[in-house]
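Key idea: predict the complex, not the pieces.
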Amino acid sequence: MGTRTAEVMAAIRARVASRALASGDRLPSIRTFAAVMDVSPSTVVEAYDRLAAEGLIRARPGSGFYVSTIAPPLTLAETGPKLDRALDPFWVSRQSLDADPAVAKPGCGWLPADWMPNDALRRAVRRLARADDAVLADYGATRGPLALRRLLSRRFAGEGLEAGPDQILLTGSGTQAIDLICRFLVRPGDAVLVDDPSYFNFQALLRAHQATIVGVPYTPAGPDVERFVEAATVHRPRLYITNSALHNPTGATLSPQTAHRLLNAAAAHDMTIVEDDIFADFEPEPSPRLAALDGLSRVIRIGSFSKTLSASIRCGYIAARPDWIEALIDLQVATSFGGVSPVAAELVLAALSDGSYRKHLEALRRRLARARRDTAASLRMLGISPWLLPRGGFYLWCGLPDGRDAAAVARAALRENVLLAPGDVFSVSQTATGFMRFNVAQMSDARIFAVLERVLRASEREASAQAGGSLRAAR
Amino acid sequence: MGTRTAEVMAAIRARVASRALASGDRLPSIRTFAAVMDVSPSTVVEAYDRLAAEGLIRARPGSGFYVSTIAPPLTLAETGPKLDRALDPFWVSRQSLDADPAVAKPGCGWLPADWMPNDALRRAVRRLARADDAVLADYGATRGPLALRRLLSRRFAGEGLEAGPDQILLTGSGTQAIDLICRFLVRPGDAVLVDDPSYFNFQALLRAHQATIVGVPYTPAGPDVERFVEAATVHRPRLYITNSALHNPTGATLSPQTAHRLLNAAAAHDMTIVEDDIFADFEPEPSPRLAALDGLSRVIRIGSFSKTLSASIRCGYIAARPDWIEALIDLQVATSFGGVSPVAAELVLAALSDGSYRKHLEALRRRLARARRDTAASLRMLGISPWLLPRGGFYLWCGLPDGRDAAAVARAALRENVLLAPGDVFSVSQTATGFMRFNVAQMSDARIFAVLERVLRASEREASAQAGGSLRAAR
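Result:
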């Protein structure tokens, strides 16, 4: 297809996207649009025919072309900026969820199954086999079972966050918790702030809500507050989504000063904050929380048990203002009928209440501390440097040796059955090209380091060959 | 608050809703708008102050009022037409999900827990306790476990529907399946057809997507095809959502002729059909299915196991075109990370594969046939007449004795701890005021009929008293 045809197609697509041409409208005549675009009529004919084949427009014989009355389906992988598929936020998710067992997954976002409290889970399952018929067969209450909400309420009180069981809504997962909040607060085109870098699925989720995603540069003490205020002023965002403790992907912790200034900035710009606390149980000691500082006035706390208990037993939660919880319940009933599965809530409650859970967490923290230290040392041997050494959790956010393109490295490694998480999938501004997120719990296989070394060496040769090529071309 | 103030507020709200006044725009000055609305300036001041208190607009001192840059949250119970709360689609859902155990629930949409295959469920749970760590602790594949998709694929083949395991996507519930499809295909303002009457949560879900909901009158053989074509022509809908077999709330079955004509109409108007097959296992023998006739070209099949297996173990499915499944996977990853819980899928698979499941279904069908017959007889004694006698399932769609308002009857019954489902919650056009949906499996308690009789008698007295009152008033 010629460039001119593509330009004509792009011009029509832009007019449809901006609603300058609405559903059912007649397109400009071939002759008119050829003059507008300064192309030949045959180019416009080809462009219109191709758009008709795609379904965006339709020909009515003897009358011209019309915008189809049916909007094209929302395909997320294409609605964001044009990215190489390896840099798409879905790439890492789908590759890691659907990976063959032969693939090592230092790029994934969870612990290996044998690091999880499986004995406690099995005890919870055996207990479930003796539960009432209603637990096994019935729908649950709209907020989720009271016993689990009470337990969460007590845990929150322990960190200074007052939230009664009625202020807690159990959901199908942590992601579903944020999704419900977005349904409630975010309309297409609304601006939403996220950290840059931040968890890639925040971007995917916000694309599904057709939000305008604005990145705020992240520092080792939290988001850069000046840039946060700047973004708030320019974009008037509806929402800011963040992890305060053990931030994904950097492992950083929000400082008290940053937390205080952030909350003031959010208040000045009338912004809601979603604090995703999914990594809380990995912390060696508690760190500042926006929800606790704010008292759930403009902060919504969400979380889940996928990282420390089970990702198979799906359960998330929202703690928020009572009037918001009411509206969120309606939304959850409308869009998934029940919220959390009562069976799942029962298993989570039993496992969390199991005497062994606290010990499991302590052992897990020690094990992860060792894994972070050892992995950091091994990565440094390859010239890969952690941006900081996190206080807890399983992520290391690392700079690659100079000039290396993390996406190219990730693609090459996947050919050798090692799944990596290249920096730009976390970066709204696409400025983390030289970074990579490593999951230290998924790196016990020495093969991973061998592949990394080989792939980095090859990318070095490629980089210098390309530099040589450009030099030659420049001569 | 005066009527004039309310009118001014409504006028501003309408301008904001239609974007005639966009986010950040300055409102007309007090003086100007008082002239426009033909009211006193103080009325406009009061209206603006009230709107500012609600957060829709904001005052900037010395500069006037501006539309808040933050859209109001989406509260579903208010976004539909103004309805009495008893007629709100959420009323029945929330009342029945959160009902006190003392409340009898002939209005709810599920079987009592002790009618479910609890022995098979317990066997499945005990088996789960011996599963691999990965099943208990890990995320699952994006489509859901292959074994369950294979089983569904074989079941579909048995009814003449070809859908390989890759064309099947497991979801968190049947409602989530439809929700994902709406995210994929429906944009705010798009028209969607539903049967009138139809399952009330279709309306709730479509409100969450801000779709325009268009009802098509339902006949004992399926939707009225002429009215369907009329609605398709006028509203150019994106989607039609229906139950073909054992339609909710009527229990009717789609006839082969209606199915064929519907598909042709959908093709002529380039419409997608979602066929919700959740009641399939209650059918004594198979009836026509749009998905089978169409071969999953423009029909999407969805379903779940909540009605015949367990509503606690959440699992739904989508069978659709392969390219659509790919896009739906991205949407599901973005909005709930994993799809179905692997633990839930394992339990469903084990229970469906249990030798006892088929026998359970046979016994259940016989038990329901008796309950339908007995309940219909008891209801007729109270002057309540089934619209038709369904071939299967647990619903009876009934006309109340003449002139009775089902919503008033439902409100009165709830005061006596009996939850009913009044007709208009199912009706987009609000023309089922004299109808009620009864769940025959939830009516073994004789108290229900006593309450019904009492409440009907009281509403009769009320109706005649009102008639008398109007007569007196007219004199």
